[in-house]
Fold this sequence. Notes:
heterodimer
Amino acid sequence: DAGVTQSPTHLIKTRGQQVTLRCSPKSGHDTVSWYQQALGQGPQFIFQYYEEEERQRGNFPDRFSGHQFPNYSSELNVNALLLGDSALYLCASSLGGGGPSTDTQYFGPGTRLTVL
Amino acid sequence: DAKTTQPNSMESNEEEPVHLPCNHSTISGTDYIHWYRQLPSQGPEYVIHGLTSNVNNRMASLAIAEDRKSSTLILHRATLRDAAVYYCILRVTSYDKVIFGPGTSLSVIP
Lengths: 116, 110
């Protein structure tokens, strides 16, 4: 049973460009959350997708957008890249209707984005 | 959002127990306490969670204070593979944003 997978593993872009990161959730999971982790800090919540809709959003600008497909996989898009967007982008999957007592998040290995 | 505070770093000797504290003085009655850890160069992984009673699983134990304003993650015998950043998180519903603090960086000394 494959866990959460993310692609690509590493990416280098220049300022102003656009990037798309991809995530496949753990088998049986229907909810995908995205996080940004700067070096030496804890992950920061970007948004969560459930039933192809954005259900929750953190304090990130509209340059960050996402999508969830019918097979529950998800994409994170970032437009007009800034140097400060350089970070590890983590995807986590879970069961959306399980409640906090069962809502365990399973994280992927992340995509390392470098903006030059 | 409810918040937690943890020490920035801790050290432990290999094969000794480790007690990682977390303060959550503003916790509400419906907040679950979750612990995750992040090994170097990996995504975070779930460790344990609880509501009121102490909890045990194959990885660790969670001791929750009677007033629920603090909790302690217990690793019974630290190994070198337990060196990681440990995060204490509060969650009310599965809809909640998962708010990670800076966590506690645990070093294990051989």
